[in-house]
Amino acid sequence: MKSFGFTLAEVLITLSIIGIVAALTIPQKIGNYVEKRTVVQLKSAYSLVSQAFLSAMAENGEVNNWCEVPITDWNTCSDKIFQTIVPYIKNVALCTRSDDNRCFSPTYKTATDVEWRVTPRTQLLTDSGFSVYIQAYAGDKYPQNWCKATVGEASSNGYSNFYNDCALIYIDINGPARPNVVGRDLFVFKLFKDGLRPGGSPMDTIWTESFENQCLAKNPMNNSGIWCTAWVLINENMDYLHCDDLSWDGKKTCKEK
């Protein structure tokens, strides 16, 4: 009786084909999983931090009342905002030294592969694993406009009205862990006197904050990639990593024609 089976050559060929298919598909599946997980993590961090600010405002008034105006030291104002919300975020570790890297990585890569540093101010790391850093800033030229705008107001292309938000809120969804790339694990929110707005929203039209210029990096600056936050939260994808023809009034995914 004859026995049937595969020759060694046939087995090797089959294993080679399986290996090639795996090499082509597994990285893509892993990438898709990581991006979907990032969307979930960013949503969770946004919800927690936004609720902390709303709770703080309920007891301390709107954010424009938290710092002494006119502001002469933006670092002091940043610390004041930080100290006001910390009691409303449970189980946090504080990083207060410039060499304390428990909260943020000392350096990040931008969308244009440039090294970018987080300013070493007071930071926190939550028990959920994400970190928060606050930077109050209105520019030396227009401090009178600090913290006058609300979440629902669009940014202005006139620089005399540009610095009208209260602060930038940086969130790293996995603390100092890799990849440490803006737009992948580091994102920015704009703080207004009545709450948070994800950076790079359709209302952020000035070139330094727009999705097209500073997420797709069509007119990049030193922190390009950070302004992808609104896109991730609203469209629930990170397709800006894979194609550059997305827009708020056009394609929302790379698969669209």
Quick take:
The protein has 257 residues and is α+β, with helices and mostly antiparallel strands. It has one domain. The protein contains four helices and eight strands; from the N terminus they run ααββββββββαα.
Task: Describe the protein in words.
- It is a single chain.
- With 257 residues, the chain is α+β, with helices and mostly antiparallel strands.
- The chain has one domain (8-241).
- It contains four helices and eight strands.
- Strands 1-4-5-6-7-8 form a six-stranded antiparallel sheet. It has a two-stranded antiparallel sheet with strand order 2-3.
Secondary-structure map with pairings?
Blueprint: H1 8-60, H2 74-85, E1 92-95, E2 107-109, E3 115-117, E4 123-126, E5 131-136, E6 167-172, E7 186-192, E8 195-198, H3 211-214, H4 229-235
Mean pLDDT: 87
Shape: elongated
Number of strands: 8
**How helical, in percent, are the residues?**
25-40%
Count of helical segments?
A: 4
State the oligomer. Answer: single chain
Contiguous low-pLDDT stretches (5 residues minimum) are: none
The domain count comes to 1
Radius of gyration: 22 Å
Major beta sheet, strand line-up: 1-4-5-6-7-8
> Could you give the order of the helices and strands?
HHEEEEEEEEHH
Biggest beta-sheet profile: 6 strands, antiparallel
How large a portion of the residues is in β-strands, by DSSP E?
5-15%
Structural class: alpha+beta
User: What is the end-to-end distance?
Assistant: 60 Å
